[in-house]
Design brief:
- It comes from Buteo japonicus.
- Belongs to the GARIN family.
- It is built from 5 helices and 10 strands.
- The protein is an alpha+beta fold.
- The chain has a single domain, classed as Pleckstrin-homology domain (PH domain)/Phosphotyrosine-binding domain (PTB) (PH-domain like), CATH 2.30.29.
- Strands 1, 4, 5, 6, 7, 8, 9 and 10 form an 8-stranded antiparallel beta sheet that branches.
- A hairpin with a 4-residue loop joins strand 7 and strand 8.
- The longest helix is centred in the C-terminal third of the chain and has 18 residues.
- The protein is globular.
Length: 204
Amino acid sequence: YEWEVEVYYIYFFKNPVAGSSQASIMGDLQRLLNQGEYAPFTSAPIFESKFVQVNRRGEPISVHNRANCVTIGICAADPSSPMPNAMLVACEVPVSPQESTTNFWKLSEQPSHMEQLALTRFFPLKFVELSVHSTDKHHLMLKLVNGRSYYLELCAPPDQQQHLFHLWLQLISLLKPPGNTSNTEVSVKCKDFGTSETHAGTDN
C-alpha cells in the first residue's frame, strides 16, 4: 500500500537509530498486537510512539499521582485500505496476582513493576483530528468528534525526540484530507482514555 511504503520509508530509511530489521525496532504496541488477541490488528503495520498527556499549557496531567502515559498507534484496520484508517490507544495497566502467576515467564522478560501494556481504545481516523499543538514542545492535539481535545507530549529519548516528532509531522501531513472535511455532525459514542478538555473549555 502506498501509505505503508511512505511510512516505512520515513521510519526505516530516514531514522538513523532504527535497525535494518523490523523486529529490532518493533514497538511495545506492535508486540502486543502480534500476540493475536486483537484481530484484525495482528499483522497490521503500525506507526507508534509513547506520549504523556498534558493540558493546553503543556503541564503534565496526573492520574493517581502519576503522569498519564499512553501509546498512540496509527494503522490500517482494513487490509484493503489504501491509507491508515485507525488510531489505537494503549496504556500500562496493573497485573493481578493471578495473572502474574499465569504469565510468569512472559512477565519475567518485562520490567518488574507488574504492569503490562493493554489496548484500551480504538478510534476510526475519520472520527478524530490529529494536529500539531506545539512544535517547540513536541505537542500534538487529538480532537474527537464530540468536541473533546487531548494534548499529548511526545515521550522519547532526547537524541531521538526531534527526529521522531518530525516523522509524526510527516504522518499528519499524509493523513490530512485534501479538503476541509468536517466530522462535527457525526455522532459516535467513545470512552475517554484520560482527562480531556472541550474545544472551548478551561485548562486542567
